[in-house]
């Protein structure tokens, strides 16, 4: 993969018009890399995603985005109130490339069908989006981003509400997309999920740490990220450190 950064932030601070929501964020993201944004709810993960999308302007520092970005929201935030098929949702990805007065045409629908095939859902193209399972809806939203020609996929809690088989399918899909050269950013509060990604950026209204999970996710970093004490539990042939609010 190219060593050139698709996204680069340095000393980034972002706000919603008032005090900073997150500060001191610095990272580089290259093609084929998977970056997990790890932190508690309200810690600034979604704020960083919105800044990368251009929805929020930097309050301080710099943010350079040299690639098209596609947003993949949580599935429960993307339930549509009117009947629309999986193919129609995927085709919506073409809207970002079309003049406001043009509707998606035959070529756009062909691209959408191809994208559904890439995420393993071509056979469900005619199914109503709202009646699909959570994992299937998540993959349709990824197909929509692919129709946008997005080189960077920005995923907000993509594994929330998925059962293990659906989560496993999504993990394989994300790995395949990264192998094809897509860069992927995932906002999550799930420590176990973040441990399997290439790098992790820990935030709690400021950047706590960034690096490979094995070197970064130690007790000191997790206490600063989540606050308070943390506990160790057996798991995965070793020991996993989990914040107390996410114990099961």
Question: Would you give an account of this structure?
Answer:
This protein is α/β, with parallel strands linked by helices. The protein has one domain (5-216): P-loop containing nucleotide triphosphate hydrolases (Rossmann fold, 3-Layer(aba) Sandwich). The protein is 29% helix and 28% strand. It has helices at 45-52, 86-91, 106-118, 134-147, 164-179, 191-194, 213-216, 219-226, and strands at residues 5-15, 20-30, 34-38, 58-65, 69-72, 152-156, 183-188, 199-203, 207-211, 231-235, 238-242. The strands form three sheets. Strands 5-6-7-3-8-9 form a six-stranded mixed β-sheet, with helices on both faces. A three-stranded antiparallel β-sheet has the order 2-1-4, covered by helices on one side. The chain starts with a strand and ends in a 6-residue tail after the last strand. The mean pLDDT is 88.
Give me the secondary-structure topology.
Elements: E1 5-15, E2 20-30, E3 34-38, H1 45-52, E4 58-65, E5 69-72, H2 86-91, H3 106-118, H4 134-147, E6 152-156, H5 164-179, E7 183-188, H6 191-194, E8 199-203, E9 207-211, H7 213-216, H8 219-226, E10 231-235, E11 238-242
